[in-house]
Every structure is written in structure tokens, then in C-alpha cells.
Amino acid sequence: MKISTKFLLPLIIAAALLPACGQNTRQENNMNKRIIATAIIWKEQLPDIVRLAESIRTFGGKYSDARIWAFYSPDIELDDSLLVRKLEDFGVELKPYTIPEGTAGFYYAGKPYAAAEAEAMAAEDSANILVWVDPDTIFLMEPDAFNLPTDISLAYRTVMHNRAGSLYGQPPDILWQRIYELTSVTDDMLFPMTTQADVQKIRAYFHCGILVLRPQKGILRRWADDFSKLILDSIIVEQCRADVDKRVFLHQNALTGAVLNILGRDEMFELSDRYNYPLLFEKNYEASRPFNDLTDVVSMRCVVSAEKVGPEWYAEVKGPSDRIAWLKDRLFRGPGVH
After folding, report:
1. How confident is the model at residue 104, as a pLDDT?
2. pTM given for the model
3. What is the pLDDT of residue 31?
4. 22, pLDDT greater than 50
5. Mean pLDDT for the stretch of residues 305-327
6. What pLDDT is attached to residue 32?
7. Please, which residues have CB within 8 angstroms of residue 158's CB and are 6 or more apart in sequence?
8. Which of 82, 221, 242, 317 could form a Cys-Cys staple with 116, CB 3.0–4.6 A?
9. Long-range contacts for 308-314 (Cβ within 8 Å, ≥24 apart)?
10. Band of residue 105 on the pLDDT scale cut at 50, 70, 90
């Protein structure tokens, strides 16, 4: 029996399209894979992670269903506490990370290694976007700028104020000279940035508290490798021993070489000041203006102590009343579940 080509042709076309359709579906699924990750350096940060996760689930929009990973230090013993159960309720996946020997004495030394493990896992998971944030980050609306254009591999913020950066137009100090040398950063790779709070023009210096990137590029893995290299250098060790700010921020300094060696400037862009907004920063640090207006703020940071802001801090804050009410119940309340 002959079958008319009139009936065969649609079947042949459909069969030919099936693999392509399946591939497109897989690509679309990968494009929609969004992971938000952070590091728990001290157990006292657990309430911050709870608040971070709740803010994502509540105000994150299309990111509200993103996977949330919290990497915890091997020094932290996580038990079946109320905090841990709340993290699980918000869908936070707790993951241990390892820290090499020799990092003692360097503040926040765990961050590059936790970030490197997050990036490796996200790349293996074929995630399209990895958002790396500090635990005290709070989302107040959907972070639409995290949807990177196809030709962009990193969205960043510059550091809030210049405590350990290199002033643009002036020779770098001994520490930065050595960092540039060890991480293979040349003058032509550097470009100016302006700090948000004290408005200083500095050489490229990326804030490691918010990074939106493509995990396949390997920036965070290079960050950990460069940090390991820096803390073994005798000149850098001596500089850090003599200056506490250099010791505190060396982990962040190490990020500069990782970014600039992997990406060209046309592959990255700076997020607006609607992101990583340091609420009431001027209460604790030098700033050229008050940071008390949450209107249109997408993500904020809680970097100031309760003692500095006072019990009536919310009366000074402008912005959407529902967001301020939400924050009032969760900020500057001391340890515990907020």
C-alpha cells in the first residue's frame, strides 16, 4: 500500500524538528537557571542568611524561585537549630567548603574559596547566571539587571569607600604594586572607578559582596588561586602585618587580577547604585551624603551596627512604606530569628 506524500511530508518535517526542539528546550532551561550563593564565615551570620533568603522569596520577582546556596566554614557545626530549619524552609541548600592551610590571620579568607566552589558547582550544573552576594544583602525588588546580555559575563559594583584601594592618577603603593605583579595586571588593563560613599576615584577595584557572572568563565576560581598566591608572598604578608585595613581587605584586592585577566572591559558593566545600597552607611563610616532613601533600591546592605543607628532608625528612612515596615521587623534586632 502506498502512502501519499501529502501525509508523509508533515511527519518527516516533525521528526526532523524534534532534536532541535529538545535542544532549544534544554538551552532555555539553562538560560533560566539562576543561582544565588553566599558564604557563612561565622555562625552569627545565620540570621542574615535567613533574612537574605526570605527577601529573595518575597521580593525577588523572577528570581524568587532561584536556587540559594549557603557555603559554611568547616569550623561551623550546624545543628538542628531553629535557624537551620528556617533556612531549609526557605529552600536554602547548605554546603560545606574547604579552606587551605595558611589563611589564619587574614580576615574573610574563606570567601574566595567558598566562591570558587560555588562557581565550579554552578558551572557543572550548567547554570547561566551565578549571583554571589554577602550574607547581609537584602533584596527589595526584582533584580532585572542580573539578566546579563549575551555579550556580558560580569556585572559588578565598585567598593563602597576607599579603605584599601589605589587612587587613580597616583602611583600605587607597595602592596598594590606587588598585587599587580603577582596577578599579571598591567597598566593598560586598569580603568577608573568612583566609590559610592566617599566619592574617590580609584583604580579598578571590584566589590566582592555582589558579583553577577557566568560561572563558566572561571573568575571566582581564579580569585581563590590568586588569593592563595598573595598570602604566601613575604612582601604582602609584611604589608598586611603592619596595616590592619590591608589585612582585612586582601581577599577583595585579589579579585582585581582575577577579573581583569579573564574579561575585557567590554565584557562587564557596573550595576547602578540601586544595587548594594549601604543603608545608613554614614552612621558608621565616612560618607559624602546620607544613605537613607530606599526609593527604587533593588538590593541593600546592612553594614552598620544597631548601636550606631539607634532604635528609631526607620524614622529617618524614605521609601516604600511596605518595605520599610518589613525591614523594621528584621533589622537591628540583635541575634536570633528575625
Report:
1. 85
2. 0.89
3. 46
4. no
5. 96
6. 59
7. 193, 194, 195, 196, 202, 205, 206, 207, 270
8. 221
9. 308/280, 308/283, 308/284, 309/280, 309/283, 313/280
10. confident
For the chain, the first-to-last Cα distance in angstroms comes to 75
> Stretch 16-43: mean pLDDT, rounded?
64
Would you say residue 150 has pLDDT above 50? yes
- Sign (positive or negative) of CA dihedral 270, 150, 29, 261: negative
Long-range Cβ contact pairs of 121-127 (< 8 A, separation 24 or more): 121/69, 121/95, 122/35, 122/37, 122/215, 123/215, 123/216, 123/218, 125/33, 125/35, 126/30, 126/33, 127/30, 127/33, 127/34, 127/35, 127/215
Contact 182, 233 (CB under 8 A): yes
- Cβ–Cβ < 8 Å for 211, 173: no
Residue 113 to residue 99: CA distance in whole angstroms: 6
Domain boundaries, the chain: 33-164+205-219+263-328
Which strands, in side-by-side order, build the sheet including 129-133?
92-96, 67-72, 34-40, 129-133, 206-213, 154-158, 268-270
Location of C-alpha cell 604594586? 177
Q: Taking the domain 33-164+205-219+263-328, which CATH number applies?
A: 3.90.550.10
CA–CA dist 288, 209 (Å, integer): 21
Residues linked to residue 92 through DSSP beta bridges, in sequence order: 68
Distance CA 9, CA 132 (A): 50
Please report the pLDDT score of residue 79 as a whole number: 81
Question: Is the model's pLDDT at 19 over the cut of 90?
Answer: no
* Higher pLDDT, residue 27 or 56: 56
Sign of CA dihedral 22, 27, 31, 36: positive
Q: How far apart are CA 63 and CA 53, in angstroms?
A: 11
